[in-house]
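Forum > Structural Biology > Help requests

Title: Can anyone predict the 3D structure of DNA-binding LytR/AlgR family response regulator?

Hi all, first post here. I have the sequence for DNA-binding LytR/AlgR family response regulator but no way to get a structure on my laptop. I'd be grateful if someone could post the C-alpha cells.
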Amino acid sequence: MRILILEDEPLIARSLVKEVRHIEPEAVLEGPLESISQALQWFAEHPQPDLILADIQLSDGVSFDIFRQVPTDCPLIFTTAYDAYAIRAFKLNSVDYLLKPIGEEELRCAFEKFHRLRESTPLHYPAQLSTLLEQLEKRPARVYKRRFLAHHHRTIVAVPTERVALFVRDEVIWLVTTEGERLITDYPSLDELDDLLDPADFFRASRQHTVRKEALEGYRTHYSGRLELLVPAAAGEAITVSKEKAPFFRRWFEE
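Reply #1:
Sure, ran it for you. C-alpha cells for DNA-binding LytR/AlgR family response regulator below:
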C-alpha cells in the first residue's frame, strides 16, 4: 500500500511519518509534501496512491484546491486543527478526519476504519469528495457570537467580544474580562463554546483555556517546547499551549 502525506509543519510531519510506519510497517510512504504546488507536481509524475493523509491548511493554501485540479479516486483522511464545520462535512460524506494534535491510537483507528471499509463495501470516494467540495463552496458565511451572557451578582449581563480576555473551565465555564473580572456563564463546556467563537479571534490553548488574541500580550517558550501565554487580565493564571499545538498557535498569533 502506498500512502501520500500532505503536511507543512516539519515537527508534525515527522511525528506523523513515525506513527504511520509503526501502524502500517509494510506501507510505502510518499512525502511529506508541504504545499499545493509540490502536490500538483507529485501527482503529475506519479500514479495515484492507495490513501492520502492531507492536512487542510498547507503552506500556500488549502489542500481542497489540489483535489479540485487533480481528480482522485482514492480515499482521503483529512487532518485539521480547528475547522469544526469542515469536520462535520467530512463526517457526513464518510471521509474520515483527525483533529490535531493527532494521537497514535486515533490514527490507528482511522486506518482500521479504512481497511474495514475497503474490504467490506464498494467505495465511491470521487463522488463523496465532489459532494464535499460543493458543500464547502456553497456554505453560507459563518456568523459567530459577538456578545456573551454571564452572571454578575444577581444580574445577567451581556459582555461584548471586545471585553473578553479568555474563557476558563474550572468546574463551570468562567468568562474573564479584559479588566480581570471573572463572571460565571451557563455554557456547558469549552468544546460547545468554541464552536460559537471566531477562530480568527479565539484560540483553544488547552482543555482549561480559550484565549482571545487581542487580550494576549505575548508568550514565552518553555525549554520543553510548550508555550506560556502572557494574559494581563489573568495575572497568576498558568495558561500554556502544548508543544504539539505550538506551531498552530504561532501561525494564529501572527495573522
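The domain at 2-138 is CATH 3.40.50.2300 (Rossmann fold). The chain has two domains: 2-138, 147-254.
Shout if anything looks off.
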